[in-house]
């Protein structure tokens, strides 16, 4: 059984092989909010069981949440060698200095496991096998005795990497071989194994577990199929981003916008007890979502504290490169402190939801007039 890259990576990492911070997304909106939360350029990767995604557009980069939304939308639903892309891995984009290749598999002819490694890894590895097979280092560990760290270092040395890399590279080869035996693999592979300013990292991972051994690994497999949720975000067709705390209040805010003749661009529920960080994240999403002309933030503080909201708003607006007018309704727990913070930052606010909704729609209409 072949595992998705994200699952293989979790297992590799559990055995001590470094990976990049990454999260799984099932929709463009989720990709966008993950990218916003990570706050760094990301690589967005189709999760399919076949290799060669890079060559057909299944691996792409995004510099900001807006790009992440677009790129994720392009990759999801794509067909890669007959397989439909249903989920994505969003990873911090690494600065790659070199790409190595290491695989452990079974040489059926030799009836032994074999380690094959090269300092010229990456998407062209199949060509390398044809044109420069001498650049592939092959090593047959004795399956009946322990594979020792010095043997792994010897492979690294034969690969011809610089001397400072022999020890860390040997360590990863050794760990990969241990993954291979511990999980009863047919294949355990890293391509590329990248060198970065932060050391060696598995940028891709492939793991195939022998079917007859799967019963031994069921629990692990189930546990590693995780799904993670950021803020609740639904993309809509209008221009006014609606953000609220709690689904009910957010829906009400949408109704108020509609009632005044406006069209919501988002339904974004920050949930109860949202922290300054969650508010910041929510605003980042809509600030980077291109159709948004006006933001309507509707908060009635309960568990959510108005001063936390104010701080999150101030921070997000300060950091944003794009200027989008925002209408804020802020009342409830700690409202005086929250309102005072907004006043000090020169950000206007309302206390009535009706008034605020009307203001947001009027503002959006004015902007549309200006553009004509
Ligand atoms: P595959 O084509 O299905 O094997 O997908 P990979 O995960 O191996 O990605 C293909 C290629 O994309 C790699 O060989 C890298 O050159 C590039 N790539 C993947 N992740 C990163 C990253 O974090 N940073 C950079 N700069 N390139 C990446
Ligand atoms: Mn690869």
UniProtKB/TrEMBL annotation:
Its EC number is 6.2.1.5. This is Succinate--CoA ligase [ADP-forming] subunit beta. InterPro entries: ATP-grasp, ATP-grasp_succ-CoA_synth-type, ATP_grasp_subdomain_1, Succ-CoA_synthase_bsu_CS, SUCC_ACL_C, Succ_CoA_ligase-like_bsu, Succinyl-CoA_synth-like. It catalyses: GTP + succinate + CoA = succinyl-CoA + GDP + phosphate; succinate + ATP + CoA = succinyl-CoA + ADP + phosphate. GO terms for molecular function: ATP binding; magnesium ion binding; succinate-CoA ligase (ADP-forming) activity; succinate-CoA ligase (GDP-forming) activity. Succinyl-CoA synthetase functions in the citric acid cycle (TCA), coupling the hydrolysis of succinyl-CoA to the synthesis of either ATP or GTP and thus represents the only step of substrate-level phosphorylation in the TCA. The beta subunit provides nucleotide specificity of the enzyme and binds the substrate succinate, while the binding sites for coenzyme A and phosphate are found in the alpha subunit. PANTHER family: SUCCINATE--COA LIGASE [GDP-FORMING] SUBUNIT BETA, MITOCHONDRIAL, SUCCINYL-COA SYNTHETASE BETA CHAIN. ATP binds at residues 45, 52-54, 91, 94, 99. Binds 1 Mg(2+) ion per subunit. Keywords: ATP-binding, Ligase, Magnesium, Metal-binding, Nucleotide-binding, Tricarboxylic acid cycle.
């Amino acid at each position: 059984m072949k595992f998705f890259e994200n699952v293989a990576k979790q297992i590799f990492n559990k055995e001590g092989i470094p990976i990049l911070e990454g999260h799984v997304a099932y929709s463009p909106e989720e990709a966008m909010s993950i990218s916003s939360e990570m706050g760094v350029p990301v690589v967005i990767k189709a999760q399919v069981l076949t290799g060669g995604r890079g060559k057909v557009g299944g691996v792409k980069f995004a510099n900001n949440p807006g790009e992440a939304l677009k790129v994720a939308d392009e990759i999801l639903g794509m067909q890669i060698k007959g397989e439909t892309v249903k989920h994505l891995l969003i990873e911090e984009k690494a600065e790659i200095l070199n790409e190595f290749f290491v695989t452990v598999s079974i040489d059926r002819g030799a009836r032994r496991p074999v380690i094959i490694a090269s300092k010229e890894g990456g998407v062209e590895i199949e060509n390398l096998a044809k044109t420069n097979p001498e650049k592939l280092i092959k090593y047959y560990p004795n399956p009946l005795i322990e594979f020792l760290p010095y043997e792994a270092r010897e492979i690294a040395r034969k690969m011809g990497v610089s001397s400072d890399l022999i020890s860390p590279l040997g360590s990863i080869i050794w760990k990969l071989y241990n993954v291979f035996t511990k999980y009863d693999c047919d294949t355990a592979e890293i391509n590329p194994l990248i060198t970065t300013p932060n050391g060696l990292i598995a940028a891709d991972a492939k793991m195939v577990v022998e079917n007859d051994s799967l019963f031994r690994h069921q629990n692990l497999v189930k546990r590693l199929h995780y799904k993670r949720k950021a803020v609740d975000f639904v993309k809509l067709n209008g221009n006014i981003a609606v953000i609220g705390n709690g689904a009910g209040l957010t829906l009400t805010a949408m109704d108020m916008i509609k009632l005044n003749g406006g069209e919501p661009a988002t339904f974004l529920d920050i949930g109860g007890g949202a922290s300054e960080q969650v508010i910041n994240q929510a605003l980042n999403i809509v600030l980077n979502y291109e159709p948004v002309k006006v933001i309507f933030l509707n908060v009635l503080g309960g568990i959510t504290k108005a001063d936390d909201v104010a701080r999150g708003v101030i921070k997000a607006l300060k950091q944003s490169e794009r200027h989008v007018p925002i209408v804020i309704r802020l009342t409830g727990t700690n409202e005086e402190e929250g309102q005072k913070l907004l006043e000090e930052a020169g950000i206007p606010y309302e206390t009535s939801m009706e008034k605020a909704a009307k203001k947001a729609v009027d503002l959006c209409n004015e902007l549309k007039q200006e553009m004509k």
